[in-house]
Input
Amino acid sequence: AQKITQTQPGMFVQEKEAVTLDCTYDTSDPSYGLFWYKQPSSGEMIFLIYQGSYDQQNATEGRYSLNFQKARKSANLVISASQLGDSAMYFCAMRESLQETSGSRLTFGEGTQLTVNP
Amino acid sequence: NAGVTQTPKFQVLKTGQSMTLQCAQDMNHNSMYWYRQDPGMGLRLIYYSASEGTTDKGEVPNGYNVSRLNKREFSLRLESAAPSQTSVYFCAGQGPNRQETQYFGPGTRLLVL
Output
C-alpha cells in the first residue's frame, strides 16, 4: 500500500524568503507520480506541480520547485520568494495506477499549514 | 470553460435523509473521482469512474453510491445520511493518460445532524 508522510503540521516563513515543505513516500510501484496541491482557506484544491518517477530533472513551475530525491523517497516542495498569498494548506499526493482500469487514484498526506508573515 | 463544477456548495441534512451531490466537467476527462476530506486530514477516495459506464470502489465507499451518467457527469448519492458523513466532498477529473493531473471541483460542504 502506498503511504505519504508530511511531518510538518505547520510552517512559518517571512515574506520574500524561501521555504521547504517536506514529503516522503513509500510505494512498490516502479511507475508513480508525485503532486503538490495548495488549499487556501476558501477550500479549493489547486494543482501546483508534478514529478514523474522517471523524470530525470526536478520539476519547476514558476516559484515552485520540487526537490525529488528518489533514493530517499522524498519529494519536497520549495517555494521561493514567499508571498502573503502563499499562506495555505499544502498537500503532497502520490498517484497509484489502478491496474484493473485505465484510471489512477491519489493518496494524500495530511498536509502542512504554511503561514507567511509580513 | 468552467473546469469541474459541483452542486450544491453547502448542504445540511438530518440523519437518515438522502441526497445526491452533482459533479460535471467540461474538460473532456475520461476518469472522474469522488473524495472526502475530514478535518486535519488529506483527501480519501470514495469512488471513481475510469471511463463512461464504469464505476469502482475506492478507499472509503461504505454508505455511498455513484452514477456515471455520461462522460461529463458523475454523481455521488448518500442513501441514508449519518453524522459520520459530515465532510467536504471533492469531485475530480483526469484525462485519458494515467500521468495526467487530477483537477478538482470547488467542493461541497455537507453537515449531517
